[in-house]
Amino acid sequence: MVNSSHEAMHRIFQEDPGIFTRTFRTLGIPFPDTVEVSVLTTDLTETQPLERRLDTLLRVETADGRPYLLAVESQGKKDPAKPSSWTYYLAHLNAKYGIDPVLLVVCQDESTARWAGRPIRIGPPEWPSLTVRPLALGPHNVPAVTDPSMAARDVPLATFSAITHGKDPNAAAILEALATALKTVDEETAIIFGELTELGLGNTPAAQIWRDLMAIDLSFFRSESSQRLRAEGKAEGKAEAVLTILERRGITVRDGVRSRILGCGDVEALDNWLGDALTATTAEELFTEA
Predict the structure, then answer these.
(1) pTM for the structure as a whole
(2) Rounded to 5 degrees, what angle do the CA atoms 103, 192, 7 make?
């Protein structure tokens, strides 16, 4: 199932396609400088009713005049069906556009990345007819950008670092560096890469760290996401306060009542419950209309 983390891991290449070249140069793969990029359709469906769709497909124009297609796939776990799909994608792209394709697979854990980066050989072992060599990125080969000044020099790479290292113990340092770097760029750029980070982290433990960082009242960062997070944080604090008062007064709080209080995002209602909690004789009284 496609989720927000999946989307962010490949969409970042649409926001800054040059990140591909910069990242792989750190791995010793000298792709030529990018001079222009076009976003192409990701639909690879043929006349038969079988849908095949990439995550992101870019046409990259290079300084040496040799364009290539960059096919980006986000991969959350090992999938035995993917190697045959990737082989099909590359053969079809080459036939359709007449341009050499490159397959990039983006992962959030080293095991999946190493699996995705293995050569795919089609044919008998004595004579493989076709060999596919995906380029796989994961926490084992994407730099961990923990220096705020380095993150500020390349915000897209710092964002990509944060996403791919979302499950690492060192994630907090990477996210703090990125949060500091976002203060050095314009508001639109901060919104784009801040929210891409939130999407890319998905439900990893690092996601809460990032939400806490973004909940800080930063004047430059006024995205809907940040405003929502600040409001949610305020409501959550008031809900906890209501429960604390009731419990310290020795009032029983049933599971249904607790869930209703913790699930409430209306700050005004929580303020009313906070006052009523000081005098109520039962927790259910909080919900009684005056």
Answers:
(1) 0.59
(2) 40
Q: Beta strand pairing status for 56-62 and 68-74?
A: antiparallel
Kindly give, in sequence order, each residue whose CB lies less than 8 Å from that of residue 261, ignoring residues fewer than 6 positions away. 239, 242, 243, 253, 270, 273, 286
Half-sphere exposure of 51 (CA within 13 A, CB side): 5
Packing angle of the helix pair 4-15, 155-164 (nearest 10 deg) = 160
Tokens representing 95 are 């036939």
The answer to whether 109 and 91 are in contact (CB under 8 A) is no
Locate the domains of the chain by residue range.
4-137, 148-222, 235-287
Instruction: Specify the CATH architecture of the domain 4-137.
Output: 3-Layer(aba) Sandwich (3.40)
pLDDT in tens, 24-70: 676 676 677 777 767 666 665 554 444 567 788 888 888 888 899 98
